[in-house]
Amino acid sequence: MPLESYKGKALDVLSQIGAEIGDIIEIEKEKVRVKGILMPSYSKDDDIVVVKMDNGYNVGVSVENASVKLVEKRGLGKPLTGKGDNRKGEVKIISTGGTIVSKVEYETGAVRPALTTEEIVQFLPEINEIAKVSSEILFSILSENMTPENWVKIAESVKKAFDEGSLGVIVAHGTDTMAYTASALAFSFKGLQGPVVLVGSQRSSDRPSSDSPINLLSSVILAKSAPFGEVVVNMHGESSDTYTLAHRGVKVRKMHTSRRDAFQSINDRPLAKVFWREREVKLLRSDFFPKREESVLDSKFDNRVFLLKYYPGMDPSIVEYLVEEKDVRGIIIEGTGLGHTSTQFLEEFRKASREGAFLGMTSQCLFGRVNMNVYTTGRLLQQAGVVPLEDMLPEVALVKLMWVLAHEDDVDKVRSLMLTNMAGEINYRHSVDFYPRWNYE
Amino acid sequence: MPLESYKGKALDVLSQIGAEIGDIIEIEKEKVRVKGILMPSYSKDDDIVVVKMDNGYNVGVSVENASVKLVEKRGLGKPLTGKGDNRKGEVKIISTGGTIVSKVEYETGAVRPALTTEEIVQFLPEINEIAKVSSEILFSILSENMTPENWVKIAESVKKAFDEGSLGVIVAHGTDTMAYTASALAFSFKGLQGPVVLVGSQRSSDRPSSDSPINLLSSVILAKSAPFGEVVVNMHGESSDTYTLAHRGVKVRKMHTSRRDAFQSINDRPLAKVFWREREVKLLRSDFFPKREESVLDSKFDNRVFLLKYYPGMDPSIVEYLVEEKDVRGIIIEGTGLGHTSTQFLEEFRKASREGAFLGMTSQCLFGRVNMNVYTTGRLLQQAGVVPLEDMLPEVALVKLMWVLAHEDDVDKVRSLMLTNMAGEINYRHSVDFYPRWNYE
């Protein structure tokens, strides 16, 4: 791989020692020694050489007064597209936008997705040691702008990748709504030939603390070698860089605005830990959905739904507005505690039910399960037509309802499908270790 | 204290040994020995004696074929209301409803609040060793039915208790909306003479695993001896019974539908751990609001607000409905990630701002802080009038907005007050240990 991204002094020094992107080099300067993989430059200064160290971080070092040595020639830095390459298309990377493997153009300050196969391999040369990747830029959408229509297009693209022989598919996605998309993909497939791995990054690639390289590398490991046919979100598992966690797509939530381990399973155990250094997938459970012969796609969503988060003082007339004026066909209520709203809502809920709207109850606690048989309010709400939705996350129940309503008109069948465990979104058995620990000293 | 709640065989046996409620007794039966405080009966079977053991749990034991001994006469089981009792009114317990210290009437199955002073002391005789309590049944409302009007009444009752000389006030409250009420009380007082402790229970008093006794006992300890003048939620800190945590009222959230340690601080450290066995308050921080000479009450709420939780596919016209048709004066948006919605909302937000509605952004991640300067969408939303609300919880921001709108008409002043840290609801410095740990092996 040429040194095209380098210029000036850095290009001179690297050319002299015959180094190419992907080779291992060592830079020694003022008693500090940095050894690692030569990365493409993303600095606007022409004396900076970018090296990825063993810990997964990139560091930029000036070649001024430095001694630069070529340690190992690896010839990795180009896509293996040659004829007779039997690893062709093992892992497909579908790019939808977001900051993962985006390229910062320092001249303009703009971040643009950089997911041609060549750019990915430039960015992460080790990928070639793991799998043959191919890529597709499906679209370039900030994930807060993602819509149910986009979900369908992503699902179709995933289906195509498996049809073309991919072992696993990676969907690069912004983190804001990644969990919603993961649910949508999970409900869109009745059986998958391999893993569908959603991955994003919480810190963009130009920052030293970026989680992009580790998340992407471990996603390639997972997509190629995980034994399941499931949609997962694969992101940093803890604040250090030891492993990523592959969370079931319908049981995961972004729980922090900025931490790299923002994504966590709620009311469930993740499917696997991925140790990117050891290139190892450690399964945390055996009850995953196995790979199927065929990936069966059925992706349709009706977004005439609403997510209603209850709070004290809320005006119940919102229900009538939604059902009467906006033709909303179903409401997911994010109630309090075990699944409650004020009993002032009973009359509105009764009316909405009578008109055929589905009303499903989840909890704003997020952890735990709704139980509407313990207190009077829960029983009254059920009599008014509200259906307790077990331990489903509010967001997941909403996406599921969009899918169900696009497939069923009959309200009894809608209810029955909402309570059918389609993709592991309902977990009937909770373990104490699903609830995280807060420690204060 | 008489044995009035006992009848039949149990009454006979207890009368014979001269035991009264609050005394320490020992029951030996089939090689099992149970020692503890004699509690009022709540069994419908007349052979059951109820004993509270050292671990805080109540156990019911049949006196059939048992040997029952009086170990220690304590004379605790009656309220210390005698003249010349200088501990009069040290701690006031205001009952608003919920399952804490409720009394199950086995004949009807109904749960009714049982918070006359006498019943509290019957239920928890050790209270007399800690403080002189008095009590008031303010109302009996399931917390899901609590309204802003109720918040004002509770605040007035708290004010009255301090005016009458209480050192601290306990508000017994259902857990569903306890965190909302805690915020409302925190914003209602500019200065407090002592701790206001909200307490509830996740398991009702008739269940052996009830958290009622420990939560109530530790709340009495806290209300009497904590050095702060703040509103806190005091509930089980972990699944075992070692301690409770006193969470700042504006930084706490019910995070589990059923666990006893459901309440946890978000983006903050709790104020204190309370070790009920040792009767000790261990402060976890020193930056609490100190006690004031006077409790200054200013409790008004305008509930022409809405909490809008964004999701992909949401129809932006809801904003117009809220502002135009429902005269909503402010919307708290629960956006994605660092504080985003789809850019489809920009036009609606611009219109709403022009009409004087306040728009505030929080994150559905809950943990972390919104930052609307990182990505283009955030900047555009700010230009459209959306105000980033730091690390405030969505629910807390909503209650705060109700309070602010009841005090200010001018939208610039509303904005400025929303960004003023009134009761510790904004935490400018986060520590890594605010984020809990998920551990999977």
From TrEMBL, chains A, B:
Query: Its Gene Ontology molecular function terms?
Result: asparaginase activity; ATP binding; glutaminyl-tRNA synthase (glutamine-hydrolyzing) activity; transferase activity
Per the record, what are the reactions this protein catalyses?
L-glutamyl-tRNA(Gln) + L-glutamine + ATP + H2O = L-glutaminyl-tRNA(Gln) + L-glutamate + ADP + phosphate + H(+)
Q: Identify the Gene3D superfamilies for this entry.
A: 2.30.30.520, 3.40.50.40, L-asparaginase, N-terminal domain
Domain GatD N-terminal, chain residue ranges per copy:
19-71
Q: Which residues form the active site?
A: 99, 175-176, 254
**Listed Pfam families:** Asparaginase, Asparaginase_C, GatD_N
Q: Which residues form the Asparaginase/glutaminase C-terminal domain?
A: 304-418
Function comment: Allows the formation of correctly charged Gln-tRNA(Gln) through the transamidation of misacylated Glu-tRNA(Gln) in organisms which lack glutaminyl-tRNA synthetase. The reaction takes place in the presence of glutamine and ATP through an activated gamma-phospho-Glu-tRNA(Gln). The GatDE system is specific for glutamate and does not act on aspartate.
* Descriptive protein name: Glutamyl-tRNA(Gln) amidotransferase subunit D
**What is the originating organism of this protein?**
Candidatus Aramenus sulfurataquae
